[in-house]
Amino acid sequence: VTLCNEMHVYVREESSVKFFRDLRRVVYVTPTSYLVLIASFKTLLQRRRLEVSLLQQRYRTGLQKLDQTNMEVIGMQTELEDLQPQLVQSAKDTEELMLVIDKETEAANVQKGIVQADEAIANEKAQAAQAIKDECDADLAV
Hints:
mainly alpha, 142 residues, rod-shaped, single chain
């Protein structure tokens, strides 16, 4: 309010004189002008208070979200610490399973080699039998 009063006095005493000197026009500063100034100030103050209130609410909401996130992180860390022995055991089990799979793969490869050798022998015998059959068919046809 003191600022509004000082503005009113300044406009009435100094600015109106300068305005008259520069433009040769008279400016009247009335109590109504002062009341309009105070109303404008109140409107501006109300807007600023609303803006500050909104910013405070945003700040509070942000702090709440940070607190909530912090609590969730703490919960996840606790859960991770609780699951750590299971993760170690799972890693150990996986390693053992990989060793078993490697051994079985080696055994399967050996068996595959044996089967391929047997297949090659069977194919040779089949070709020999086919040759004998073709020869017999040719003898019968004559």
